[in-house]
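Suppose you are handed a protein chain with no further information: no name, no annotation, nothing but its sequence. What can you learn? This example shows the usual starting point.
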Amino acid sequence: MAKLTYKDAGLDLDLYEQSLAGMVPFLKRTHTPRVLDGFGGFAALFSLDYNSQLFAKNYRHPVLVACNDGVGTKLKIASLMNKHDTVGIDLVAMSVNDCLCTGGEPLLFLDYLALPKDDPPLIKELIKGISAGCIDAECALVGGETAILPDFYQPGDYDMAGFCVGVVEREYIVSGRSIQVGDTVLGLASSGLHSNGYSLARKIVFDHAKLQVTDFVPELGRTIGEELLEPTRIYVRPIKNILHHYPVKKRVVRGLAHITGEGLPGNVPRVLPPGKRVFLKRGSWPMPPVFSWLQKLGDIEQAEMDTVFNCGIGFVMIVSRFFADSIQRQLQHERIPTYMIGEVREGAVGVEWVT
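A reasonable first move is to predict its three-dimensional structure. Written in C-alpha cells, the prediction is:
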C-alpha cells in the first residue's frame, strides 16, 4: 500500500511555489523605498517615516487607519466570464476607499486568497489585479496569504479578502464632527455597481430574466458580463489632492463617505453628527444605465434600489458650501464626474429625499 502524501490530500507544494514565484513581480512594482524587506518573510516591514528628499514622509502625531473587505459574489461573474484580472482592483478599492473616509492615506495592502486547489495561472491573474489596484491607490502590496482548502471550496470557487493600513495626522482626521447646517453634499460618480448588490443583481439577471453573461444589452452598449465586471472606482488620488489643497484649520472638507452596501441612505448617516440631516435631491446626477436596466428587468422598488446599490454615486464629500464649486471643478479636472446632490439641514441623523 502506497504511503499517503500531502499531494494526495490535494495540496501540491511544487505548484504552491510556482504560485508564489508568479506573484513577486506584481508585488515589487508597487514598492517604494519605504518597504524594507521585499517579499518572502513571515511579515512585512514598512517605514512610516522616510527622510529621503524625494520620498520624505515625516509625521508629528500619526494615527494608523486599518480596514478590510472582500469582493463578494461579484467573483461569481468573474468565474462565469473566466476573467479574473480585474476583481483584484475591486478588492483594493473596497478597503482603500474606506481608509479615505478618515482623511487617511493608504500605505500598504495585504491579500488573502482561498482556493480549492493550487492554480498558478489563476492566482497570477488575481494578484495582477490587486497590484494594479495598489498602483492606482498609491499603496504598497507587501504580502498576504494563499490558502488551499480542497474540502472547503467547490472546484471553480475561490474567495478573496483584503486588508489596508493607512495613516493620518491626528489634527487632519476627518470625522464628520464639524459638519454644519448649510454644508454642500458632493456626489462623486461611481463606475457602475462597484462591488455591492451582486446577490440581487445576479438573481435579477440570471434567475429571473434567464440571461447569460455573453448576452449583449443595447441599453448598456456591451455584454452583461462586461458590465457587471466593471471594476470599482478608486478615489484615492483625487481625494488626497483635495485634502492636501486645503489647510485643515479651515475645515473645508467635513465628512467623507464611501457608498457601499446600504447605498446612500445607509452610508451617509455614518459620518453625520447629532442633529444634522442630509437632504438629497433625486435626479441631481445622471444614473448610469445599468441601474435603470436592472430596476426595470427585476421590477424593483425605488426604495430597494436606494438601499442595495450605489445608484451612480460611489463616494460622498460633505464640504463647506463656500468651497463646493472649487472642489467640484478640481474633481472634474481629475476626471471624476462630481455633482452637487444635496445639503445639510437640522434634523435627526439620516438621509431624506427631496425633488
